[in-house]
Design a protein that fits this description.
seven-stranded mixed β-sheet; 44 strands; alpha/beta; about 1000 residues; about 25% helix; six-stranded mixed β-sheet
């Protein structure tokens, strides 16, 4: 039996830095004097800023909008009543798409207020999964930063006046009219744009993506391949973060996990190789990860091409892992997949050739039903920017596009807009681009709108309004129809467009499509012949071999799972800003991720501010020492540095888009940089080492597939205690009187093989349970409030089997040296709802008690804030309300939605908003448990398995979390617990015998070497 490897959480822990030692020894943050820390006392009676009143929008108007039935044609997903029943939730099927991230969703409304999104299980694309960004998007509806009326030159204007002026100017415009947008996957919207273009024949629609995949489109005949990771036994990714941000991660994640789940009946796994220029979420989940400098990615593609296909020029990249990957690809012809996140046409051309040679097209790659979620054309956008500056564009309409912020040539965009006679913005706020436009015609929020989507050819989905418009906005499609002289509403236009798709009785078919939210069929014209790739394979090889070699320090730009590209409302969403990055666990801003050897050589410490210069542009950001960052390179996230996003997002981090480069009419996301240390320091708000449990094993456990195949009962290490009768499991020896559960016994299973660390569960929990946002300084003070956290563990390269050869002291010293390329395990950590809960015995007022159904309960109005319970919790999952986060003005800029009547509309009325001085924690979503029991009671039966699901389990795209009744022998949680007992199932810190109700399943890695600790 193997022992667990040594794990560590962060650089601070390995170095035993003074800050870490201080916080490790003082389990709770010292009480900070309010005046010293924030400059004012906790003035809970101070006047609150009422946003609605300031903007001349009365509470009565907002209440009226929320209580109206949204539109008479809208059909609740689960319940049919048109009227609002107080206390009863209605569900509506809809769709979230922000120009990059597609999710089919169910919208939960209470008293007409959208308060929560869930994944739509009817969708064949997303399969009930939901991204963190989609989870958080419900808050965007109530964002005080939205523009609430039409405007002319930033001044409020009457809608009819705006329409009249725009129609007059468009009719007399000289030069062409450009509609600029990110990727649009709505067939009806594209038809509206085409109708607008028929009225104004000089109209051109230009789509561009802030994180471009233009080269991938060109290399595959103008279409985006539809990938199916479930049909691949061997996966090789060249910098594609397909589990995090690349193309369609919520679609790819369940596909990927299909071949990663193991059991005693299925002892096989796919094999995943990752070659990448920064540490990504996908790289953290790979079996074999190879850090590669950005300039070497082309050489990696060429080397792989030579090994698989042969005939190419000699590559400068030589790696035994690459040779092994190529060998396994060839052994799995037709059941493999090679993907690349590069926007270099030469690289994508070779990747397409490799997949063709392996016979993957038609199996794991489908070109007949391509994906449509990226359609941006870099060359077309660059040409438009030049034309605007040349004065040949007569009018420009920005439709959810913000190139003055998220394009490398933002400065030229700004000067170009000034030279265009007619500039119009549909953006939902006066952002960096919208503020430069003469006319502002803000679009509805997607939760106020009708629309349709086709994310993949043959798969349709609908969006329907779940609330009447809160402000005097208008759907962009209605604006275009109005200016095109079409008096028809977009809803009627949409219905008419769907008549060509739905067969039989149209009304019945339409009602079903609106009810389900999804439908099969295509509204696209017949597939056109593939466009020719500008590069042949020989030309691609020549371009790679002739490319200048990397010199100096190289920069890789990447997209984060949380704020993404920072476009639209994402950057102004506090839930996303405070969501920890899966790798660095940092919140509230970006940073320069540097390898450890570079930090040591330059005497940089974490938090030192560097001046980063590239392409004549400079930004300043703090250093973060990142294990796994390729030597000689650094990486920085895009999506930050907004100037006109709103009070939450403005000034958070630095804008890195100007550091991107234009190569061969495409955007390149890597370049050479110079780094210069400044005298400033900027602490990074990380969550990882706040609640350290290092060396208290077993916390996380892992093994290899070879060991699992050999004997599943030897992959998990179990603690034993000595008794007069010999070694026994800890739960066999107890001074406690065990609880007897006669009705229900709620429990959870978390599969570490299935958890990819995406954070969707963290956001799902936060939205469901009204968890407060505390801001950067309070995160630094170790006071974040998330009920569920995802711990990221690095494992050491050195193990105890080296004692005999290297000696104990030398081995331990080696363990303390951070690995250059550590492997990673993710572990969701929440209240374990222990049957022998140590928190319950120390509460002097019985605020935390044990229920008859196995729940560790919190009674908020009993809690007096002694924090004894948190001190006694071995899992560090209890959160203390140091302030009244919903009324203390110090938190108005980060937790502002709890301050206004408008923002409070997002709160879940079934969950109490906790007051200052109260302890809180995971409740296993007790409100959902009670609802499930009541619904079953009305039907005179017990709840069925799957009817009660916690918010975290509901959100997980990989179904890593399973919740249910342990008293029900047929429930999934009971079946998994029985099946994995003695094999992969274990309890965290089992030796202390607190008997958690959460069982974890040991992570199995498909690696060749067998590590014996």
């Amino acid at each position: 039996m193997q022992e667990s490897p040594k794990y560590w959480k962060g650089i601070e822990e390995l170095e035993n830095s003074p800050e870490f030692v201080k916080t490790a020894l003082t389990e709770f943050a010292d009480f900070l004097p309010v005046k010293e820390a924030h400059g004012s006392s906790d003035a809970t009676v101070a006047p609150r800023r009422d946003f609605l009143k300031l903007m001349g929008f009365g509470l009565a108007a907002a209440t009226l909008a929320s209580c109206e039935t949204p539109v008479r044609k809208a059909i609740p997903y689960l319940n049919k009543p048109e009227e609002v029943d107080p206390g009863i939730a209605n569900w509506y099927a809809s769709t979230y798409f922000n120009g990059a991230d597609y999710n089919s969703v169910l919208v939960k409304t209470r008293e007409g207020r959208p308060i929560k999104l869930e994944g739509n299980p009817e969708s064949p694309i997303t399969r009930g999964g939901l991204s963190a960004r989609a989870q958080a998007s419900v808050l965007d509806l109530y964002d005080s930063g939205r523009l609430q009326h039409f405007a002319i030159n930033k001044q409020k204007a009457d809608t009819d006046r705006v329409d009249q002026e725009i129609r007059t100017k468009l009719a007399s415009v000289t030069g062409r009219i450009a509609i600029v947008s990110p990727t649009i996957i709505s067939p009806s919207t594209k038809k509206v744009i085409a109708e607008f273009a028929s009225r104004y024949p000089n109209t051109e629609h230009v789509m561009y993506d802030a994180n471009s995949s233009s080269a991938l489109l060109q290399a595959n005949g103008g279409v985006l391949p539809a990938y199916d990771f479930s049909k691949a036994d061997v996966i090789v990714s060249l910098g594609a973060d397909f589990l995090g941000t690349w193309l369609s991660p919520i679609e790819f994640a369940p596909q990927y996990i299909t071949n990663r789940k193991v059991s005693s009946e299925k002892r096989s796994m796919s094999r995943h190789f990752q070659f990448e220029p920064y540490f990504s979420l996908t790289g953290a989940n790979a079996d074999v990860r190879v850090p590669v400098k950005p300039s070497e990615m082309g050489a990696v593609a060429l080397a792989l091409y030579n090994e698989v296909v042969g005939g190419g020029a000699t590559s400068s990249f030589n790696s035994p892992q690459l040779k092994k990957a190529a060998a396994e690809l060839k052994a799995a012809r037709g059941k493999s997949l090679v993907v690349s996140g590069s926007n270099d046409l030469a690289v994508q051309t070779l990747v397409a050739a490799i997949n063709q040679a392996l016979g993957n097209v038609g199996t794991s790659i489908d070109l007949t039903k391509p994906s449509l979620v990226r359609q941006g054309d870099d060359a077309k956008m660059l040409r438009l920017i030049n034309d605007m500056n040349a004065g040949t564009v007569g009018a420009v309409i920005f439709y959810h596009a913000n190139p003055a912020y998220n394009h490398p040539l933002a400065d030229k965009v700004k000067t170009g807009i000034a030279k265009v006679p007619v500039s119009i913005s549909f953006n939902d706020r006066l952002d960096e681009t919208g503020s430069l436009c003469y006319y502002a015609c803000p679009d509805h929020n997607y939760l106020e709108s009708w629309n349709d989507y086709e994310p993949k050819r043959g798969y349709l989905s609908l969006a329907q309004p779940v609330i009447s418009p809160l402000f005097a906005t208008r759907q962009a499609q209605d604006s275009l129809l109005t200016w095109a002289g079409n008096p028809q509403s977009y809803y009627n236009y949409l219905r008419a467009n769907w008549r060509g798709v739905l067969s039989g009785d149209f009304q019945k078919a339409w009602d079903k499509a609106v009810h389900d939210g999804v439908a099969l069929g295509s509204m696209l014209p017949a597939a056109a012949a593939p466009t020719a790739n500008p590069y042949s394979v020989d030309q691609a090889i020549s371009a790679i071999t002739s490319a200048p070699k990397g010199s100096g320090v190289e920069l890789a730009l990447y997209e984060k799972v949380s704020v993404g590209t920072g476009s639209r409302a994402d950057a102004n969403n506090p839930w996303l800003q405070e969501l920890p990055d899966p790798i660095s666990k940092a919140t509230w801003g970006n940073y320069v991720a540097v390898p450890r050897d570079m930090a040591i050589a330059n005497k940089w410490e974490q938090g030192d501010v560097l001046k980063v210069t590239a392409n004549g542009k400079s930004i300043e950001l703090p250093v973060l020492v990142q294990p796994g960052q390729p030597k000689g390179s650094v990486s920085i996230a895009i999506g930050y540095g907004r100037e006109k996003a709103g009070r939450v997002g403005d000034g958070v981090g630095a804008n890195t888009y100007p550091l991107a480069v234009i190569r061969n009419n495409a955007i390149g996301y890597f370049t050479n940089v110079t780094l210069e240390k400044t005298d400033a320091r900027s602490p990074i708000a990380q969550t990882q080492t706040h609640h350290t449990i290092m060396d208290r094993k077993p916390v996380v456990q892992e093994s290899t597939l070879a060991q699992y195949i050999r004997n599943p009962k030897e992959v998990t290490e179990y603690d034993k205690v000595a008794t007069p009768d010999g070694l026994e499991k800890p739960n066999k020896v107890s001074l406690w009187q065990d609880y007897e559960y006669k009705n229900h016994h709620w429990g959870m299973v978390i599969d570490l093989n299935s958890c990819i660390g995406c954070g969707a569960c963290v956001l799902g929990c936060q939205v469901e349970n009204n968890v407060a946002v505390v801001g950067k300084q309070e995160v630094i003070n170790r006071r974040e409030m998330h009920w569920l956290r995802i711990d990221r563990y690095y494992s050491s390269d050195h193990h105890k089997d080296e004692f005999e050869t290297k000696g104990k002291l030398a081995t331990y010293r080696a363990m303390e040296d951070p690995s250059e390329n550590p492997s990673v395990i993710y572990q969701p950590m929440l209240c374990q709802h222990c049957n022998h809960a140590p928190c319950e015995t120390v509460c002097p007022v019985l605020a935390t008690t044990h229920s008859s159904e196995g729940l560790n309960q919190m009674t908020y109005n009993r809690c007096v804030g002694t924090r004894y319970c948190a001190n006694n919790c071995p899992y560090k999952v209890r959160r203390f309300n140091w302030f009244s986060y919903y009324s203390n003005e110090k938190f108005e800029n980060v937790n502002g939605h709890m301050f206004t009547d408008l923002g409070r509309m997002v709160l879940n009325p079934d969950v109490t908003v906790r007051a200052r001085g109260v302890m809180e924690k995971c409740s296993f979503c007790v409100q959902r448990i009670q609802l499930g029991k009541l619904e079953a009671k009305k039907q005179k039966r017990r709840p069925k398995d799957g009817e009660v699901v916690t918010a975290c389990a509901q959100s997980c795209p990989t179904q890593a979390i399973v919740f249910g009744d342990l008293r029900d022998p047929n429930s999934r949680v009971s079946q998994i617990t029985r099946r994995e007992d003695g094999e992969r199932g274990f309890h965290v810190l089992d030796a202390i015998n607190v008997q958690p109700n959460i069982t974890y399943l040991t992570k199995i890695r498909n690696v060749e070497e067998v590590r014996n600790a």
